[in-house]
Specification:
The structure holds 2 protein chains of 2 kinds. By secondary structure, chain A is an alpha+beta fold. Chain A has helices at 6-27, 33-42, 65-77, 101-109, 143-153, 226-240, 251-258, 260-274, 283-292, 304-314, 316-325, 353-366, 389-398, 429-438, 442-448, 510-524, 532-539, 542-555; strands spanning 45-47, 52-56, 62-64, 82-85, 91-93, 127-128, 168-171, 185-191, 197-203, 215-222, 326-328, 334-339, 350-352, 370-373, 379-385, 413-414, 453-456, 470-477, 480-487, 499-500, 505-506. Chain A is built from 18 helices and 21 strands. In chain A, strands 16, 17, 18, 19, 20 and 21 form a 6-stranded mixed β-sheet that branches. Chain A has a 5-stranded antiparallel β-sheet with strand order 1-2-5-4-13. The longest helix of chain A is centred in the N-terminal third of the chain and has 22 residues, at 6-27. Chain A is globular and about 60 Å long. The relative contact order of chain A is 0.09. Chain B has helices at residues 35-50, 74-81, and strands at residues 2-8, 14-18, 21-23, 54-65, 68-71. In chain B, strands 3-2-1-4-5 form a 5-stranded antiparallel β-sheet, with helices on one face. Chain B has one domain (2-93). By secondary structure, chain B is α+β, with helices and mostly antiparallel strands. The chains are: A alpha+beta, B alpha+beta. Chains A and B meet through helix 14 of A and helix 2 of B. Chain A: It is an enzyme of class 1 (oxidoreductase). Chain A: This is Nitrite/sulfite reductase. Chain A: Keywords: 4Fe-4S, Heme, Iron, Iron-sulfur, Metal-binding, Oxidoreductase. Chain A: It holds the Pfam family NIR_SIR_ferr.
Chain lengths: 556, 101
C-alpha cells in the first residue's frame, strides 16, 4: 500500500504544526470562533451536540495494522473507547477535546495519517471499491488512480474554495461496489478494445436534499488524461457552480440546470486546452504509484479447499459466515472477508478500541497487514488464505465481530443521527438497532436475501437512504420524530433513487412498517433468487402501498 | 421559559448558564420567564462568546419537572442527557444535581 515519501511526511508534519498553533491561539483567545471555524473544518474538526468531533481520513479506505492500532489508541487515550467508521470510508471520534487535537494529529502523523480535507468546500477523501486489488472481477486496482487524485487534490490552490464540497469515487470492476454514480465525479476503470486502461467518467451524482444519479459524459478516457480531464470538470464547476445558494451549489445542480450535453461540451472544450500540457500523466509516474500498490506475494495455499470443507462440517455458524461474509478472490486459494460492524442490535459502524486492536492483530497475522473500511461501514480483510479462514473466524468470534450478515437486512448503513449530530432532525441509530433486532434470526435474513437498508437522520442523507433498496429518512414533525420510507433505490452499477412510498411513520411504527414491506416482498417475489430490488422494479410501489396504507384509505 | 446553553470552547462539552457560571448539567440552569430575562441571558451568552469561553450559544425552551429544568425539544433533551443509545456516556452517566428550590 501507499507509503509516504519525504514530501508527504514534511507536508503532514507542517500541517500538524500549523493547526496546533491555530488551536493554541484559539484557546488563548487570540483568534475568534469566526476566524477559527474554517481552519478547524479544514482539519476535520466539527462541533456536534455533545462535544467536538474529529473526522480522520482513510484514503480510499485502505489502512494497515499499525494505523488501525493507532486508531484504537486514540479511541482509548483521547476519546471514550470507540470510534465510528463512516460511509466515506473514514473514521470519526465523537468526544475529543479541542485542546487534545494537536496531540491526536501528531499521533496520527506518526503512522502516516491525518484529517486534512475531511471537511470544507474542497475535494474530499477519494473513495474506492473496498475489495480493490483482491476482487476476482476487477480489471485493475483502482487505488493507484485514487492515490494520484489524492496527491493532485491535496491543498490544490485552485480547488480549495469550491462552491461546495466535492467527492470522487473510483471502481475497477463492472460491478460497482463504490457507488460511483452517487458522487460528484465517478470513475469506472476499464479496458478498451485495444486492451488499454482508461475510465468511463460520470459527473453530477449526489444525495442530500436533491438526489441525482450521475451522468456519463465520457465512455473512455485514457488513463494518462485522468488529471487533465478532472481539472477540466473542476474548472467548469468552479466557474459556473452556484455560490449564491448553499443548497444549489453542488455540481449535480449545475449539470441538471445546464444540461448534460452542454456540460460535456464545456468540459471537453476546457480539456482541449489542458490535455497535452503538464497534467498529462507520464507512464513512469503511473507505474511508480502502481508500485506502491503491488499486491502481496500470495503463496499457493491449495490446502484451503479441504480445510474449509472440513470446518464447514464442524460448525454451522462458520459455514453461514463463509456463505455470507466471504467473497471470491482473484487468487483461487484466497478470499476477501467482510468483518461486520453490524452486530444484531449494535450501532452500525462503531468499533471499540480493543476491537480495533484485535482486528489489527488479525490483519497482521492472516491478511498481509492490510485492512479496508467499506462505505457500507464494515471492515474488510482483502487477502486471507482460505486455509486460514477458520482461524480468522474464531478470532472474530472472540471479539464479537463474526456476525454473518453482509448484504442482509441487518447490514444497515446508518448516519449518527440526532444522538450525536448537530444537523440531524431525528435519531437514526435506534431505528437501525430495532430493525436489526426484529430481523435478528439469520435464517430469516437469509430467506429474505440481499436487501440494502439505509437510514439518514436528516435530509443531508449521510446514511444514503436515497439509494437504499429500502431507505428511511428521519425528520422532525410537530416536535416528534417521523420516518419517511423510500423504496427502489440502489447504489450499484444500476443506480437509482428510491421513491417515497407514502406518509411517514412514527418511531413506534417504523419497524412494523419495514416488516410489512419485507413480508409483502416475500409474498410476491417470483422465486427466492429474485432480490427485493428486482422484485420492486418489476412490480412497482403499488403492492407495497396497498400493504402499508390500504386500511387507511378504506377507513377514510 | 428559556435557559442559555452553549458548548465549552476547550472541550466542546455542552453547558448551561447557572448561578453566574457555566454548569455541565441543565437541571439547575437559570430560567428566563420573560423577555427582559431572556435579553439578560442573551447578553451574558454574547459576552461569554466574545470572551472565548463558549461557542454555539443559544436560548432554548424548557419546562420545570419536579424541580429540575428539562429541555422541550428532543435535540436539546439529547444534548442534556447524552446519546440515547449509550446511557453510559454523556451527562446521563453521572447523577444529576437537584435544582435548589
Amino acid at each position: 500500500m501507499y507509503r509516504y515519501d519525504e514530501f508527504d511526511h514534511d507536508f503532514v508534519q507542517a500541517r500538524v504544526a500549523e493547526f496546533s498553533d491555530q488551536v493554541q491561539r484559539r484557546l488563548a483567545g487570540e483568534i475568534t470562533e469566526d476566524q477559527f471555524r474554517p481552519l478547524r473544518l479544514m482539519n476535520g474538526v466539527y462541533l456536534q451536540l455533545h462535544a467536538y468531533m474529529l473526522r480522520i481520513a482513510v484514503p480510499y479506505g485502505t489502512l494497515n495494522s499499525k494505523q488501525m492500532r493507532m486508531l484504537g489508541h486514540i479511541a482509548r487515550k483521547y476519546d471514550k473507547g470507540y470510534g465510528h467508521f463512516t460511509t466515506r470510508q473514514n473514521i470519526q471520534f465523537n468526544w475529543p477535546a479541542l485542546s487534545d487535537i494537536p496531540a491526536i494529529l501528531a499521533d496520527l502523523a506518526s503512522v502516516e495519517m491525518h484529517a486534512i480535507q475531511t471537511s470544507g468546500n474542497c475535494i474530499r477523501n477519494v473513495t474506492a471499491d473496498h475489495f480493490a486489488g483482491a476482487a476476482a472481477d476487477e480489471v485493475a486496482d483502482p487505488r493507484p488512480y485514487a492515490e494520484i487524485l489524492r496527491q493532485w487534490s491535496s491543498v490544490h490552490p485552485e480547488f480549495s474554495f469550491l462552491p461546495r464540497k466535492f467527492k470522487i469515487a473510483v471502481t475497477g470492476a463492472e460491478r460497482d461496489r463504490a457507488a460511483i454514480q452517487t458522487h460528484d465525479i465517478g470513475l469506472h476503470l476499464k479496458k478498451n478494445a485495444a486492451g488499454e486502461l482508461g475510465f468511463a467518467v460520470y459527473v453530477g451524482g449526489g444525495q442530500g436534499r436533491t438526489p441525482m444519479v450521475a451522468r456519463k459524459i465520457r465512455d473512455f478516457l485514457p488513463e494518462a488524461d485522468l488529471l487533465s480531464y478532472c481539472t477540466a470538470i473542476l474548472r467548469v464547476y468552479n466557474l459556473y457552480g452556484r455560490r449564491d445558494n448553499k443548497y444549489k451549489a453542488r455540481i449535480k445542480i449545475l449539470v441538471h440546470e445546464t444540461g448534460v450535453e452542454e456540460i460535456t461540451r464545456q468540459v471537453e472544450a476546457e480539456w482541449q486546452e489542458l490535455k497535452d500540457a503538464e497534467l498529462k500523466l507520464p507512464e513512469a509516474d503511473i507505474q511508480a504509484i502502481n508500485a506502491y500498490f503491488t499486491p502481496p506475494g500470495l503463496a499457493e495455499r491449495p490446502e484451503g479447499d479441504a480445510a474449509v470443507k472440513l470446518a464447514r462440517l464442524d460448525s454451522k455458524n462458520f459455514s453461514e459466515w463463509l456463505d455470507q461474509n466471504v467473497v471470491t478472490h482473484r487468487h483461487p486459494d484466497y478470499a476477501a472477508v467482510t468483518i461486520s460492524l453490524k452486530g444484531i442490535g449494535e450501532v452500525p459502524g462503531d468499533a471499540t478500541d480493543s476491537q480495533m486492536e484485535a482486528v489489527a492483530d488479525i490483519a497482521e497475522k492472516y491478511a498481509f497487514d492490510e485492512l479496508r473500511v467499506s462505505h457500507e461501514q464494515n471492515l474488510i480483510l482483502p487477502h486471507v488464505a482460505r486455509a486460514d479462514l477458520k482461524a480468522v473466524y474464531d478470532a472474530l468470534v472472540d471479539i464479537g465481530l463474526a456476525t454473518a450478515n453482509s448484504n442482509l437486512i441487518s447490514d444497515i448503513i446508518s448516519c449518527p443521527g440526532l444522538d450525536y449530530c448537530a444537523l440531524a432532525t431525528a435519531r437514526s441509530i435506534p431505528v437501525a438497532q430495532e430493525i436489526s433486532q426484529r430481523f435478528a434470526s439469520l435464517e430469516r435474513q437469509r430467506e429474505i436475501g440481499e436487501l440494502k437498508l439505509k437510514i439518514s437522520g436528516c435530509i443531508n442523507a449521510c446514511g444514503h437512504h436515497h439509494v437504499g433498496h429500502i431507505g428511511i429518512l428521519g425528520v422532525e414533525k410537530k416536535g416528534s420524530e417521523l420516518y419517511q420510507v423510500t423504496l427502489g433505490g440502489s447504489a450499484d452499477e444500476n443506480t437509482s433513487v428510491g421513491e417515497i412510498i407514502g406518509r411517514g411513520f412514527s418511531s413506534e411504527e417504523i419497524t412494523d412498517a419495514i416488516e410489512q414491506i419485507v413480508d409483502t416482498y416475500l409474498g410476491l417475489r417470483l422465486s427466492p433468487s429474485e432480490r427485493f430490488i428486482d422484485a420492486y422494479r418489476r412490480v412497482g410501489p403499488a403492492p407495497f402501498k396497498e400493504a402499508l396504507y390500504a386500511g387507511e384509505t378504506k377507513a377514510a | 421559559m428559556k435557559v442559555l446553553t452553549a458548548n465549552r470552547l476547550t472541550d466542546g462539552i455542552a453547558v448551561w448558564y447557572a448561578d453566574g457560571g457555566w454548569a455541565e448539567t441543565v437541571g439547575g440552569a437559570d430560567l428566563a420567564h420573560d423577555k427582559a430575562a431572556e435579553d439578560r441571558l442573551e447578553a451574558i451568552g454574547a459576552a461569554a462568546y466574545a470572551n472565548n469561553e463558549v461557542v454555539d450559544v443559544n436560548l432554548i425552551d424548557v419546562t420545570v419537572v419536579d424541580g429540575l429544568v428539562e429541555p422541550v425539544r428532543l435535540r436539546e433533551k439529547i444534548r442534556a442527557a447524552g446519546p440515547t443509545i449509550r446511557e453510559d456516556l454523556g451527562k446521563q452517566a453521572s447523577p444529576q444535581p437537584v435544582r435548589a428550590a
